[in-house]
Amino acid sequence: MGDQINIFENILQYYLRISLALRFDICTCPRCREAMMKCLLSKFTPVYIDPHSSDLRTAEREIVKKHWQLIFDEVTKALEYVSKNPPHAADDNKEEAFANLLLKIKEDRGVDFTWYHPALLKRRIALRLIAKKVDSYIEYRKVLANDPVEYEKLFEVLTINVSEFFRDIEVWATIKIILEAMVEENSAKGEPIVIWSAGCALGEEPYSLAILCRQIGQIGVPVKIYATDIDKDCLQRAQQGCYDALGIDKTQNILKNYFSFDFLDYFEKKDNKYWIKDEIKKMVEFSYLDLTGKDYLHDINLIICRNVFIYFTKPLQEKILDQFYHSLADKGYLIIGKNETLVYEARLVFKEIDLHGRVYQKIKI
Looking at domain 94-158, which of 1.10.3470, 1.10.155, 2.60.40, 1.10.287 is its CATH number? Predict the structure, then answer.
């Protein structure tokens, strides 16, 4: 084709380079990269163009726009194929090194990540390898051994603590209805309301629950909220109950459209920070709890565990949901993330209350 170039070659080289940037579980030597590119080029019909043409960038954008999903899928397949069939003898066992790294984390900190989605774990851990300028799991184990503070950085990327007050306000509208009914029922029975925020991050969720409970008719029934997480640093920050103004102001504006109370009544402002008032803080008990372990709470009326299951493999999801089932009191409620779904087995013991909000109720069997 003379001086013309295959547009796909530049595009595939770019996406291959991006994909390999976070891969420490496979060989990325020049020979393997060459094999991956050869594999990729065989999957796409060449599209030739003059490299000096003014239409080159436009043509590349159009191809990416049209074929981005196929490109992504084929890059993933090429990486996996070549990693399993390398053009040279393997000089080390990267999967074994990864398994040993997870074992060290469990031994040192008591957190078992072996049940988590391996692809997600590898991407998150890769961020710390890049930050520490090491190129293997073996070297990163040495970093953890010599620098215990690195564990805090590692846990920050492994447990994404993204939250906000009254996150997904539509879900909270359903929670409000549930709590109002629960107040009436438990008041009649003379029983307290017990709530568990599992994976509480920086505390916005359990404090939102406390504020909502406080607001519902200034309820006369006792309320206890347990808030748990595996990130001890987050738990410590959550216990302080201190948040910046920007996030609070955003939540305040959202609540004006849904709930008829002044959110800021439950905070004290100091030095441009908002501090949860003691009347709310005393309703929440923060503690460390690993959902992959065996220690669970019991006689819970409402469990909220949102955007946590996305980290877990299906067998672990089944295990946790089974434990949640036994943690709940009769007719207790479970709420998971809006982008999560119950595994099939759990649908047999949980009744759907609000599909959009992912709200379920325990079925007594």
Answer: 1.10.155
